[in-house]
Amino acid sequence: MHREQTLQLPAHSRIDNLQGQVFGIVMAAFGITILKAAGLITGQTAGLSILISYASGWSFGVVFFLVNLPFYVFAWQRMGVAFTVRSFISATAISLMADFMPHYIQFGDLNMFAAAAVASCTASVGLIALFRHGASAGGLGMLALYIQDKTGFKAGWFQLAVDLCIFAVSFAVIDSLAVIASLFGAIILNTLIALNHRKDWYVAQ
Protein backbone atom coordinates (compact mmCIF):
# COMPACT_ATOMS: atom_id res chain seq x y z
CA MET A 1 0.00 0.00 0.00
CA HIS A 2 1.45 3.34 -1.09
CA ARG A 3 0.91 6.53 0.80
CA GLU A 4 0.64 9.66 -1.32
CA GLN A 5 2.34 12.74 -0.02
CA THR A 6 1.47 16.24 -1.06
CA LEU A 7 4.33 18.68 -0.98
CA GLN A 8 3.46 22.26 -0.22
CA LEU A 9 5.80 24.39 -2.29
CA PRO A 10 6.80 27.69 -0.69
CA ALA A 11 5.49 30.76 -2.48
CA HIS A 12 7.27 34.00 -3.19
CA SER A 13 5.89 36.89 -1.17
CA ARG A 14 5.17 40.24 -2.80
CA ILE A 15 8.39 41.56 -1.29
CA ASP A 16 10.32 38.61 -2.77
CA ASN A 17 8.94 39.33 -6.22
CA LEU A 18 9.40 43.10 -5.90
CA GLN A 19 13.07 42.90 -4.94
CA GLY A 20 13.72 40.29 -7.63
CA GLN A 21 12.06 42.42 -10.27
CA VAL A 22 13.90 45.60 -9.24
CA PHE A 23 17.22 43.72 -9.22
CA GLY A 24 16.50 42.29 -12.67
CA ILE A 25 15.58 45.71 -14.08
CA VAL A 26 18.75 47.37 -12.76
CA MET A 27 21.06 44.60 -14.00
CA ALA A 28 19.45 44.43 -17.45
CA ALA A 29 19.59 48.23 -17.86
CA PHE A 30 23.22 48.30 -16.71
CA GLY A 31 24.13 45.63 -19.26
CA ILE A 32 22.51 47.67 -22.04
CA THR A 33 24.36 50.78 -20.82
CA ILE A 34 27.71 48.98 -21.15
CA LEU A 35 26.83 47.77 -24.65
CA LYS A 36 25.79 51.23 -25.83
CA ALA A 37 28.96 52.78 -24.36
CA ALA A 38 31.05 50.31 -26.38
CA GLY A 39 29.02 50.85 -29.58
CA LEU A 40 27.67 47.31 -29.50
CA ILE A 41 24.25 45.72 -29.76
CA THR A 42 22.62 42.69 -28.25
CA GLY A 43 19.91 40.37 -29.50
CA GLN A 44 16.14 40.17 -29.10
CA THR A 45 13.99 43.29 -28.96
CA ALA A 46 16.67 45.16 -26.99
CA GLY A 47 19.19 44.56 -29.78
CA LEU A 48 16.70 45.48 -32.48
CA SER A 49 15.90 48.67 -30.56
CA ILE A 50 19.59 49.60 -30.18
CA LEU A 51 20.05 49.00 -33.91
CA ILE A 52 17.10 51.25 -34.80
CA SER A 53 18.42 53.84 -32.34
CA TYR A 54 21.86 53.85 -34.01
CA ALA A 55 20.35 54.10 -37.50
CA SER A 56 17.71 56.73 -36.72
CA GLY A 57 19.19 58.76 -33.88
CA TRP A 58 16.04 58.16 -31.82
CA SER A 59 16.22 57.48 -28.10
CA PHE A 60 16.75 53.81 -27.23
CA GLY A 61 14.12 54.04 -24.49
CA VAL A 62 11.40 55.25 -26.86
CA VAL A 63 12.23 52.67 -29.54
CA PHE A 64 12.42 49.82 -27.02
CA PHE A 65 9.04 50.80 -25.57
CA LEU A 66 7.37 50.91 -29.00
CA VAL A 67 8.91 47.68 -30.31
CA ASN A 68 7.62 45.83 -27.26
CA LEU A 69 3.97 46.89 -27.62
CA PRO A 70 2.76 44.12 -30.01
CA PHE A 71 4.21 41.43 -27.75
CA TYR A 72 2.08 42.57 -24.81
CA VAL A 73 -1.07 41.62 -26.74
CA PHE A 74 0.32 38.12 -27.24
CA ALA A 75 1.36 37.83 -23.58
CA TRP A 76 -2.02 39.10 -22.35
CA GLN A 77 -3.82 36.39 -24.33
CA ARG A 78 -1.41 33.51 -23.74
CA MET A 79 0.46 34.12 -20.47
CA GLY A 80 -1.97 35.96 -18.24
CA VAL A 81 -2.59 39.45 -16.96
CA ALA A 82 -0.15 39.35 -14.01
CA PHE A 83 2.83 38.27 -16.14
CA THR A 84 1.99 40.84 -18.81
CA VAL A 85 1.67 43.71 -16.34
CA ARG A 86 4.94 42.80 -14.58
CA SER A 87 6.71 42.53 -17.94
CA PHE A 88 5.28 45.88 -19.08
CA ILE A 89 6.54 47.54 -15.89
CA SER A 90 9.96 45.88 -16.24
CA ALA A 91 10.42 46.79 -19.90
CA THR A 92 9.31 50.38 -19.31
CA ALA A 93 11.66 50.74 -16.33
CA ILE A 94 14.56 49.26 -18.35
CA SER A 95 13.80 51.75 -21.16
CA LEU A 96 13.96 54.69 -18.77
CA MET A 97 17.01 53.49 -16.83
CA ALA A 98 19.00 52.68 -19.96
CA ASP A 99 18.44 56.26 -21.16
CA PHE A 100 19.29 57.88 -17.81
CA MET A 101 22.18 55.68 -16.64
CA PRO A 102 24.75 57.18 -19.06
CA HIS A 103 24.24 60.56 -17.34
CA TYR A 104 25.46 59.08 -14.06
CA ILE A 105 27.75 56.21 -15.12
CA GLN A 106 30.47 56.85 -17.70
CA PHE A 107 33.13 54.54 -19.07
CA GLY A 108 36.58 55.17 -20.48
CA ASP A 109 38.10 53.30 -23.40
CA LEU A 110 36.26 49.96 -23.60
CA ASN A 111 37.57 46.85 -25.30
CA MET A 112 34.62 45.64 -27.38
CA PHE A 113 34.98 41.96 -26.53
CA ALA A 114 35.51 42.58 -22.82
CA ALA A 115 32.52 44.94 -22.76
CA ALA A 116 30.38 42.39 -24.61
CA ALA A 117 31.29 39.64 -22.14
CA VAL A 118 30.69 41.71 -18.99
CA ALA A 119 27.48 43.28 -20.32
CA SER A 120 26.12 39.88 -21.31
CA CYS A 121 26.87 38.33 -17.93
CA THR A 122 25.25 41.31 -16.21
CA ALA A 123 22.15 41.33 -18.42
CA SER A 124 21.69 37.54 -18.24
CA VAL A 125 21.61 37.66 -14.44
CA GLY A 126 19.00 40.41 -14.67
CA LEU A 127 16.84 38.51 -17.16
CA ILE A 128 16.98 35.30 -15.13
CA ALA A 129 15.89 37.28 -12.05
CA LEU A 130 12.93 38.66 -13.99
CA PHE A 131 11.97 35.21 -15.31
CA ARG A 132 12.21 33.72 -11.84
CA HIS A 133 9.87 36.33 -10.40
CA GLY A 134 7.16 36.04 -13.03
CA ALA A 135 8.23 38.80 -15.40
CA SER A 136 10.38 39.43 -18.45
CA ALA A 137 12.00 42.33 -20.27
CA GLY A 138 9.17 42.17 -22.78
CA GLY A 139 9.30 41.38 -26.47
CA LEU A 140 10.86 38.15 -27.63
CA GLY A 141 11.66 37.16 -24.05
CA MET A 142 7.94 36.63 -23.46
CA LEU A 143 7.60 34.55 -26.61
CA ALA A 144 10.71 32.53 -25.71
CA LEU A 145 9.34 31.76 -22.23
CA TYR A 146 6.01 30.70 -23.70
CA ILE A 147 7.72 28.34 -26.16
CA GLN A 148 9.90 26.87 -23.39
CA ASP A 149 6.89 26.28 -21.12
CA LYS A 150 4.83 24.69 -23.89
CA THR A 151 7.44 22.68 -25.78
CA GLY A 152 10.50 22.38 -23.53
CA PHE A 153 12.68 24.07 -26.15
CA LYS A 154 14.98 26.27 -24.11
CA ALA A 155 14.33 30.00 -24.15
CA GLY A 156 18.04 30.76 -24.52
CA TRP A 157 18.40 28.70 -27.69
CA PHE A 158 15.28 30.24 -29.25
CA GLN A 159 16.57 33.73 -28.48
CA LEU A 160 19.98 32.90 -29.94
CA ALA A 161 18.37 31.80 -33.22
CA VAL A 162 16.50 35.12 -33.45
CA ASP A 163 19.66 37.00 -32.49
CA LEU A 164 21.54 35.55 -35.46
CA CYS A 165 18.97 37.14 -37.78
CA ILE A 166 19.33 40.51 -36.03
CA PHE A 167 23.12 40.37 -36.27
CA ALA A 168 22.96 39.53 -39.97
CA VAL A 169 21.06 42.79 -40.54
CA SER A 170 23.35 44.78 -38.23
CA PHE A 171 26.30 44.48 -40.65
CA ALA A 172 24.58 47.22 -42.67
CA VAL A 173 24.44 49.59 -39.67
CA ILE A 174 27.53 49.15 -37.48
CA ASP A 175 31.18 48.16 -37.91
CA SER A 176 31.74 44.49 -38.72
CA LEU A 177 34.11 44.00 -35.76
CA ALA A 178 31.43 45.45 -33.47
CA VAL A 179 28.93 42.96 -34.90
CA ILE A 180 31.31 40.07 -34.19
CA ALA A 181 31.90 41.30 -30.63
CA SER A 182 28.13 41.71 -30.17
CA LEU A 183 27.52 38.18 -31.42
CA PHE A 184 30.16 36.92 -28.98
CA GLY A 185 28.24 38.62 -26.18
CA ALA A 186 24.88 37.28 -27.35
CA ILE A 187 26.23 33.72 -27.33
CA ILE A 188 27.37 34.22 -23.73
CA LEU A 189 24.04 35.75 -22.66
CA ASN A 190 21.81 33.12 -24.25
CA THR A 191 24.01 30.21 -23.17
CA LEU A 192 23.87 31.43 -19.57
CA ILE A 193 20.08 31.71 -19.76
CA ALA A 194 19.70 28.30 -21.40
CA LEU A 195 21.90 26.61 -18.79
CA ASN A 196 20.63 28.44 -15.71
CA HIS A 197 16.95 29.12 -16.33
CA ARG A 198 15.47 25.71 -15.58
CA LYS A 199 12.09 25.65 -13.91
CA ASP A 200 12.66 22.17 -12.46
CA TRP A 201 15.62 23.48 -10.43
CA TYR A 202 13.48 25.89 -8.47
CA VAL A 203 11.36 25.22 -5.41
CA ALA A 204 9.57 28.48 -4.66
CA GLN A 205 6.69 29.50 -6.90
UniProtKB/TrEMBL annotation:
<dbReference type="GO" id="GO:0005886">
    <property type="term" value="C:plasma membrane"/>
</dbReference>
<keyword id="KW-0472">Membrane</keyword>
<feature type="transmembrane region" description="Helical">
    <location>
        <begin position="177"/>
        <end position="195"/>
    </location>
</feature>
<keyword id="KW-1003">Cell membrane</keyword>
<dbReference type="Pfam" id="PF02588">
    <property type="entry name" value="YitT_membrane"/>
</dbReference>
<feature type="transmembrane region" description="Helical">
    <location>
        <begin position="152"/>
        <end position="171"/>
    </location>
</feature>
<keyword id="KW-1133">Transmembrane helix</keyword>
<protein>
    <submittedName>
        <fullName>Uncharacterized 5xTM membrane BCR, YitT family COG1284</fullName>
    </submittedName>
</protein>
<dbReference type="InterPro" id="IPR051461">
    <property type="entry name" value="UPF0750_membrane"/>
</dbReference>
<feature type="transmembrane region" description="Helical">
    <location>
        <begin position="21"/>
        <end position="41"/>
    </location>
</feature>
<keyword id="KW-0812">Transmembrane</keyword>
<feature type="transmembrane region" description="Helical">
    <location>
        <begin position="79"/>
        <end position="98"/>
    </location>
</feature>
<feature type="transmembrane region" description="Helical">
    <location>
        <begin position="47"/>
        <end position="67"/>
    </location>
</feature>
<dbReference type="InterPro" id="IPR003740">
    <property type="entry name" value="YitT"/>
</dbReference>
<feature type="transmembrane region" description="Helical">
    <location>
        <begin position="110"/>
        <end position="131"/>
    </location>
</feature>
